[in-house]
What we know:
There is one protein chain. Helix content is 42%, strand content 20%. The model is unreliable at 56-61, 65-69 and 148-155 (pLDDT under 50). By secondary structure, the protein is of the alpha/beta class. The protein has helices at residues 3-6, 20-30, 50-53, 67-72, 75-86, 90-93, 107-117, 136-145, 161-174, 200-213, 229-237; strands at 34-38, 44-49, 101-102, 121-126, 129-135, 182-187, 190-197, 220-226. The two termini are 37 Å apart. The longest helix is centred in the last third of the chain and has 14 residues, at 161-174. It has a three-stranded mixed beta sheet with strand order 3-4-5. The protein is built from eleven helices and eight strands.
Amino acid sequence: MQARDVMSTPVISVTEDASVADVARLLLSKGISGVPVLDANGRLLGIVSEGDLVRRVESGTERTPSWWLRLFGDSEDQVREYAKTHGRRVRDVMSREVATVREDTPVAEIAELLERRRIKRVPVVRGNEVVGIVSRANLLQALASGPGRASPIDAAGAPSDLSLKTRIEDEMRRAGIDTAFVNVVVTDGTAYLWGAVRSEAQLDAARIAAETAMGGTADVQSRLSVLPASVQRVMWAE
């Protein structure tokens, strides 16, 4: 199983000019913990996560170094910490050294990377373009979906797991389903739907859309739920 089989798409991103407050609202409304930062040409500049926003002067959570640390500590560290806690734009708080993977990177390598770097997500790139995100949650969903593998085409000439995943995502959008919280994993010809949708009607429509994309088969396992009302209120407030 590779990155393309489990990654979340489309990618929710921000620009380096976005305000810290706007990013905080975006993370809350989309139920995610981090987003890539892209330039006008879609190239990756960095990543901003909830961890980058935890210590902020607005909320009174910024670190206040002791007098001896101010006296004997690294002045450059103090300067960077000040910029991170007081900066108003994404460019001031984002992490610039970002690990990335390719679409064909094995899931096992991604898991090792997340553990080694102590990070929660990694962008998937195709050349200079960010085409997806693989998070710890995506890896857990892949694990729960089974040990399958994605091949270009099976011996009988049937569609690959990857093409079925794409078909299902396209069919869901065609059906009018909000897929911001939905992740599709297809393994050995069985589709697993993870995440949440806005209503009971979308819950049924998502399953039907997946079955339609699968050619009317019953090889669809829905693990979807309906978004909590509190989350939906935040989303609709936008």
